[in-house]
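Need tokens for this chain, all 131 residues.
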Amino acid sequence: MANTKFQRLSYSAVYQQVDPVTATLVAGAAAAVVATFDITPIKFITVSLDVTIAALTGVEVWVRGDTRARWIQLTADQLDGYGRSDTGTDINSTPAGSACFMMLNCIGWSDVMIKAKSAGAAKLSVTAGGQ
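Here are the structure tokens for all 131 residues:
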């Protein structure tokens, strides 16, 4: 059975991972949702986007405080950390064959949504873990 949600555990120091999600981006389209996570059971989350076929031209991180709240976009400097698996640091221009990651403090947020866009037909493998 696929692990698609973070679990509420009494022992909060447990690191949890959800199974990878695969997303395909339409060439030249607006930023599309590639993953949404309920992050209430965890304190910190790291989300990685493994990019193949075409480079990314934008990555957005959106959060909300509860299921009825409006989504708020976070800028990169509001994240706990971010980067790429190659020599670059700009997650918005992650080339094919590389990965980018974003780290977020979950305190005060109930959900996180990751959006991405590409000039080409990119394929993404989205992984997330936290504790």
